[in-house]
């Protein structure tokens, strides 16, 4: 039976980059025997415009019924003044929590062809291959209580809550240890245990889990130091595991090591292996509609979907190889362009990768 994919392009550059990912999928269906059924839906600002909500119950039900969800990006300046409960980002967070997607895998891999596109020196980033495991359904993003309240003196006060239960830390920790076992067997847990009790518990749980994974070398790092080490000597890292908010920040930071945030895919998985796949970049309203966005992060997200949800690691490899081939040909979108290369738009990049599938 064919696997069901729900495609949610979202806002801003989302539809443009998704169109390229769909070309790749169509080619795999036509010529490589990939058996999938694709459905389409709305999430984020476009869903708010159509239905008055950034994520409808119906879309969430369709996402639950799918084998995988492929998402573009959400958000835009026109929705920034809305109540926070109606903003596009709530649609994305609703999918993550509604599907129980607690494990977010964000690989930061440097294609050798892009060593000079990074803002860091080529020798600092060449050979870079990091996996950031970000907790995605807990922490300060979801903690209660939250809000803005009025103090007795009339002043307003904003507040959010950082909470993690032991079981939440343990389940993301196990994913991270298992990920490290399949890679370089080194795991760095990132926290702020010198200041925040919640992450002191995080460190304690990670340390106790290490006994179950004697082949993995566990280290700990404070998040401020981790941010610095990522730009100072990033190759010291193999797998990093961290909280929802620290992972959000560190993965943007790590993306620049690879040349551009436009390059990075992600997989968000739940306990039963169901997944949602999206590039880690946002909706980039400033370049939306201009046809210049980099579709590679989305196309590589398709590769992750093939690997983690569709049981097609060989086809995932074909996509990664096609991206590499096109970079070898010298094609570059604006974000990864260097003077001696050929600048192409979103469509041309998508078409070249589709053609390079062989
Ligand atoms: C990401 C994004 C989201 C996040 C936003 C759009 C809510 O920055 O996926 O990293 O903060 O998780
Ligand atoms: Mg982010």
Describe the structure concisely for a colleague.
With 358 residues, this protein is an alpha/beta fold. Helix content is 39%, strand content 19%.
* Strand order in the largest sheet: 2-1-3-12-11-4-5-10-8-9
CATH-level-2 architecture of the largest domain: 3-Layer(aba) Sandwich
**Record field, number of beta strands:** 14
Distance between the termini: 26 Å
Helix content: 25-40%
How big a fraction of the residues is strand? 15-25%
How many structurally independent domains? 2
Determine Rg (CA atoms, Å).
20 Å
Summing up helix and strand content along with how strands pair, one would put the structural category as alpha/beta
N to C succession of SSEs:
EHEHHEHEHEEEHEHEHEHEEHHEEH
Mean pLDDT: 97
Which cofactors or ions or other ligands sit in this model?
Answer: 3-isopropylmalic acid, magnesium ion
| CATH topology tier name of the largest domain | Isopropylmalate Dehydrogenase
Q: What is the CATH class of the largest domain?
A: Alpha Beta
The major pleated sheet works out as: 10 strands, mixed
Shape: globular
As an assembly, this protein is: single chain
Low-confidence runs: none
Relevant CATH superfamily of the largest domain:
Isopropylmalate Dehydrogenase
Describe the model.
- With 358 residues, this protein is α/β, with parallel strands linked by helices.
- It folds into two domains: 1-107 and 259-358, Isopropylmalate Dehydrogenase, CATH 3.40.718.10; 119-258, Isopropylmalate Dehydrogenase (3-Layer(aba) Sandwich), CATH 3.40.718.10.
- The chain has twelve helices and 14 strands.
- The strands form three sheets. A ten-stranded mixed sheet has the order 2-1-3-12-11-4-5-10-8-9, with helices on both faces.
- α1 crosses α10 (296-308) and α6 (166-181) packs across α7.
- The site of 3-isopropylmalic acid (IPM) has 7 residues, from α4.
């Amino acid at each position: 039976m064919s696997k069901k994919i729900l495609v949610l392009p979202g806002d801003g550059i989302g539809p443009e980059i998704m169109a390229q990912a769909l070309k790749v999928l169509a080619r795999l269906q036509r010529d490589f025997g990939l058996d999938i059924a694709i459905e389409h839906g709305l999430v984020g600002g476009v869903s708010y415009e159509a239905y008055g909500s950034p994520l409808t119950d119906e879309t969430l039900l369709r996402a639950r019924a799918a084998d995988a969800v492929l998402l573009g990006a959400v958000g835009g300046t026109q929705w920034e003044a809305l109540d926070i409960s109606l903003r596009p980002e709530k649609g994305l967070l609703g999918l993550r929590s509604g599907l129980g997607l607690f494990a977010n895998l964000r690989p930061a891999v440097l294609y050798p062809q892009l060593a000079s596109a990074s803002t860091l020196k080529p020798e600092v980033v060449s050979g870079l291959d990091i996996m950031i495991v970000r907790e995605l359904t807990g922490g300060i993003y979801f903690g209660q209580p939250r809000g803005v309240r009025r103090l007795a003196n009339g002043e307003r006060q904003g507040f959010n809550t950082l909470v993690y239960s032991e079981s939440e830390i343990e389940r993301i920790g196990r994913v991270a240890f298992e990920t490290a076992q399949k890679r370089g067997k080194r795991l760095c847990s990132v926290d702020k245990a010198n200041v925040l009790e919640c992450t002191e518990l995080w460190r304690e749980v990670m340390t106790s889990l290490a006994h179950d994974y004697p082949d993995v070398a566990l280290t700990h790092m404070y998040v401020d130091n981790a941010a610095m080490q990522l730009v100072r000597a990033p190759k010291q890292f193999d797998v990093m595991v961290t909280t929802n908010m620290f992972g959000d920040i560190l993965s943007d930071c790590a993306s620049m090591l690879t040349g551009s945030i436009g390059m990075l895919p992600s997989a968000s998985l739940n306990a039963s292996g169901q997944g949602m796949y999206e590039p880690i970049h946002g909706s980039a309203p400033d370049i939306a509609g201009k046809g210049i966005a980099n579709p590679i992060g989305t196309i590589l997200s398709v590769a992750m979907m093939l690997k983690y949800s569709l049981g097609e690691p060989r086809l995932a490899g074909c996509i990664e190889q096609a991206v590499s081939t096109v970079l070898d040909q010298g094609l570059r979108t604006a974000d990864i362009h260097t003077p001696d290369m050929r600048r192409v738009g979103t469509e041309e990049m998508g078409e070249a990768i589709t053609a390079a599938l062989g």
